[in-house]
Amino acid sequence: MKKIGTIFAAVATVILIAVIVWDGYFNKNTSTDFFAMDTVISASVSGADSEICVEKIEACVNNLDALLSRHDEKSEISKINNSSIATVSEKLGGYLSSLLDICQKSGGAFDITLGAVSDLWSFGKNASIPDETELQKVLSECGYENISISGNTVTLSSGKIDFGAVGKGIALDEIRTILDASKINEATVSVGGSVLIYGKEAVKVGIRDPYGNAGRSIASLLLSDTCVSTSGSYERHFEENGKRYHHILNPKTGYPVDNGLISVTIISDSGLVSDALSTACFVLGIEKGTELAEAYGCEAIFITESKQIYTTESIASEIEITDSSYTLIGYEN
Ligand code: AMP
Ligand code: MG
To answer: 77, 137, 171, 208: which sits with the fewest CB atoms below 10 Å from its CB?
Structure first.
C-alpha cells in the first residue's frame, strides 16, 4: 500500500514538473528596450517564440527607420525628397497612398509634406521661432497635392515628405504581422507615443498625464488587440515669452496648433491610422476631429489644456478617471 502511495506521489511530481515546463515554454516572457526612430521602443512578448520575436521586432523597426527617415540620405523618402521623382518599393507606395487618403479626408489638417517647415522649427534640437518671411516661403512650397503616385513611381513637385507623424504607428502594424506569424500569446509594444496591445486578454491602458512625467496617467481603460497612439503638445516643445511652441503644426499657418488641446489619443486596429489620426485630430480640434475619427471607425480621447476630457460616443463609459483634477465630459455632438 505504501509502495503504491510512493509511485502515485512520484507520478504526480513528474506531471507537475511537466506542466510547469510546458507552461514556461508556451508562456515564455521576453522583454527588450532599444532606441530607434528617434524614440525609445519597449517590447514585452509572451509565448514560445518570444525570444526570436523580440529579435525580429528590433530588426523590423531598424529596417523601417532606414526606409522612412528623411534624415537618412539612403532612405526611400530621401530619394523622393532629393530628386522629386523616384521609384519606390511597393510597401512605401502603399503607405503613401493610405496617408494621402488621410491628408484628403482631414481637409489638409494632416499633411505629410511639412518636412521643411518642421526643419525650420527644429524641435528637439536648438528650437527657436523661425524668421517669418522664410517660414511663409517654405510653407508655400508645401501641400500634399504636390505628391502623385503612378504604380511604383512617386512624384513630388515641391515640399519635403515627413513620416514623423506616422512612422511609429506603421512600425506597430509591421510588428503585428511578425507576432501573427509566430507562436505568441500576448505582447505589449510601445514605439514612442504609439502602443500595440496584442492578444485576446484585456489590458488596463493608462492615458498619459499631459502635465506630468511619462509614467504617470490620469485615466485608464481596458483594451485588447488594438493600437493606441497619443499626440501631445508636451512632446517636443520650447517656451518663449511664456508661450509654448510645440511640434504639431497647423499646415495653414506653419505655426504650432493653438486650439486649447493638450493631447489626443486614438484607438484603432491599424497603427498607421491611430498614429496619423492622433496628429490629424489634434490639428482639427474636438468637433472635426471626432468626425474624422468616426469616419475611420476609431475611438478618440481629447484632453484640453483646462483638463476636460472629450471622447467619441462609445468609449465615454469605458474610461475611468484616476486623477480627480480632470473632468470627463464624454461625447458631445
Ligand atoms: P505625432 O507625435 O505623431 O503627433 O507626430 C508629430 C510629428 O508629425 C511632428 O514632429 C512632425 O514631424 C509631423 N507633423 C507636424 N505637424 C503635422 C501635420 N499637421 N501633419 C502631418 N505631420 C505633421
Ligand atoms: Mg501621430
So the answer is: 137
The CATH code of the domain at 70-156 is 1.10.3980.10
Give the chain's mean pLDDT: 93
Instruction: Place 240 in a pLDDT band, splitting at 50, 70 and 90.
Output: confident
- The cell numbers describing 17, all together, are 514538473
Fold (topology level) of 202-330: T-fold (3.10.520)
Q: Residue 134, class by beta-carbon neighbours within 10 Å (0-12 exposed, 13-18 middle, 19+ buried)?
A: exposed
Question: Looking up cell 499631459, which residue turns up?
Answer: 210
Confidence label for 266 from pLDDT (cuts 50, 70 and 90): very high
pLDDT, tens only, 39-69: 999 999 999 999 999 999 999 999 999 999 9
| Closest-CA residue to 92 (of 151, 141, 36, 39) | 151
